[in-house]
Write the structure tokens for this entry.
Amino acid sequence: MQKIKKVCVYCASSENIDSKYFEATEKLARVLAKNNITVVYGGGSRGLMGKLADTILSEKGRIVGIMPHFMKEVEFHHKDVNEFIFTADMHERKKQFMVGVDALITLPGGCGTMEELLEAMTLKRLGIFTKPIVILNAFGYYDHLIKMLEFSIEENFMKPMHNDIWNAFEDPEKVLEAIHQSKPWSKDALKHS
């Protein structure tokens, strides 16, 4: 079983959400910090992004923020993260999220979080990205998205093998288990699509 050293976490910057999502984020962050896993994230200081960073830092973990220059003031970049990478635009940000990571983790979030997740799934389907993609389906947040993905397989827009692109889990403390249970993915995936 491969040791997980670095993960990217996609999550929301919204503060106007139920406290249960902050609690789930904190639990996940503690597991990552306890296991000495470097976390790459969107760099924000608010919402689930802020909770993720604050918890990693309080646990003496390592976290790297990645954000386009123009978003410094919009998302209020977290000034205490261990390292910050500022990019020219959103496309470069998303590329940087995937550099050298062992897995992608998606927490509840809005259209930006879902867009990052779906782009990563597309890249995996094409064999460009082959690492585990795990979705924290806390409190059933992603039930409808997962059903839509499954429906697209039923309707032959994707193949049954594409169900292995992601792995959904509900308990934030089982994140490493979810990563390790993800099925291996080939760079030749496009040949089988």
Notes: The chain has six helices and seven strands. Helices lie at 19-34, 47-58, 90-97, 111-125, 143-154, 175-181.
